[in-house]
Amino acid sequence: MVCVMCLIPLFLVPIVNLLPVLFHILMAKIYRIMGKEYQRPERAPPACPFKPSANKSNNSVTGEEPSSGAPHPVPKAVGVDDSKQD
């Protein structure tokens, strides 16, 4: 036999998931009473915190050039001597 307190989380999860939908329905009714149109704000898609989209380490799979904006390093001429002399 299962206690009633153990079943409460099973019923809370769907209710918590419905809260944003209920909020938008309520806001639409309030706006309709005031004579305006309620538009839901656009949400950004959820991003994975472990693999941020800004860091693209594997560009060879997609075949794209790196878009970091930094130019490729220019190779030095063969006869140039960069040693310091005091």
| Proportion in helices | 25-40%
Low-confidence stretches: none
| Helix-strand topology string | H
Using only CA atoms, what is the Rg? 29 Å
Protein name: Transmembrane protein
Region (Disordered): 41-86
Highlighted features:
1 helix, 86 residues, mainly alpha
Please render the helix and strand layout as text:
Elements: H1 4-34
Give a description of the structure.
This is Transmembrane protein. Residues 41-86 are annotated as: Disordered. There is one protein chain. By secondary structure, this protein is mainly α. Helices cover 36% and strands 0% of the residues. It contains one helix and no strands. The chain has one helix at residues 4-34. The chain starts with a helix and ends in a 52-residue tail after the last helix. The relative contact order is 0.05. The model has no long low-confidence stretch (mean pLDDT 75).
Short description:
The protein has 86 residues and is mostly helical. It has one helix at residues 4-34.
